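Format notes (please read before filing issues)

Several people have asked whether sequences and structure tokens are stored in separate files. They are not. Every record keeps both together, in the order shown below: the sequence lines, then the token lines. Line labels are part of the format and must not be stripped during preprocessing.
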Amino acid sequence: MSKALGIILSCLVLSSVSSLAQGPCPTAFSTSTANVPARSGDLICLVPQVYGGGGLVGSDHGGPLFSTAQFSHAAHFSSSAVQSFSPLNAEIGTQLSQLPFTSPASGFIFSFNPSLGVITRETENFGPILTERADTIGKHKLFVGFSYQYFNFDKADGVNLKNFGAVFQHESEAELCTPGSPLTCVNGEPTFQQDIIATQNRIDLKVHQVTAVATFGVTNRFDLSVAVPILDVRMSVFSNATINSFETASDIPPCCVHRFDPASSDAHEHLVDAAHASFFNNNTSSGVGDVIFRGKFQALKGEKAGLAVGLDVHAPTGDERNFLGSGTWGVRPFAAFSYAGRISPHASFGYQRNGDSVLAGDVTTDTSSHLPDIITYSAGADAGVTHRVTLSADFLGQSLVDAKKIASSTFTDAAGATHSNIVTSTATINQASIAVGGKVNPVGRLLITANVLFRVNDAGLHSRPVPLIGVSYTF
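Then the structure lines:
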């Protein structure tokens, strides 16, 4: 009877999942071992496939759970794992495509002085570092710059990425508890459906970003700019998993239906015993990110104050499957105000409209969804300490509209024990940062820039202080 029961279970599970589509990170909804998916080399698959190419399924479908001819674990905990980790994956991918970088604004601003008949330097300081000012560079002037930043991410929405729990629940098998079924059922569900896999996890995520920027003054009041980020993304994930079984020896089927399979152990997995195992997955990627093109026009130009309007176009040149880009076009109209002087305040506001990307969708089915739009705003001031040194301080804010987010929670199992867990939701994420730095002019029109960016809240993907060093020249 147990063999027949196992075959029935297998057929029901396989028939319920065989029609599901597969994307760049399939979690083994395959009906034969010949189609077992391998681990993908793309960073977007690193977290969903930490338990193997198939996710939390049987070893006969690319996962770590024990399988036999009678109990073929095709789906089981796989969907739960995807539901728990996908919003975190989406948050990482979305926000890595929106990293801040040095503004393509020249530290030297020039204009034609009709009374003297010459072109003269106009401002008394070298301007902001990560934000905007209204001034344009000057007709036929060229600015080029390079900067390096280092991001070390440690939190997501206040959840400690170095130590967080996630509970994976069993797929629903309530349809098996029909009248006359030999299964032991509780509240209309098989006893083995109460089993959970409780995990403790760690994600290490570091990004090195080098950005090249250039600005050309088409006229005295209109600039064209381009920014080309080059990223090196390094990511690893660790997970310690424990199977909690609730069927007894007298149940049908008896304990323990779910256990780790020693035959599935590989370089990514360490089996402690049938109920405990640890998993590891890591990879790196590098390449060009999303190139940004900008046009900026100084609409109002007073003796000291100015107002500029502009448009940024984000081209999807970065590989979104390796967290190098957004995977979609983005358009950001913006406005910037500044007041010229030895102490120069400035502020900006913009709204970035994005398209659809797999980063915001489902990587297991290759389904794209709308990448969150972004409201950006900043305010700060620059102070010319000497004619060769400028200090800068800025507040930077951005709001990701209707973005996926996570939060710490707890899960209570069938025995009343609690386990740390994460829950997901969709909301506007308001991020706030401050930046302090300065620019030094050692010789000619050469500028050396140094800056540190500090996050002042835990919303969204949170990095430890971000250092920046840069060099630029105006021709």
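For reference, the curators noted about this record: Residues 131 and 202 are 33 Å apart (CA to CA). Residues 2-88+164-199+239-281 form one domain.
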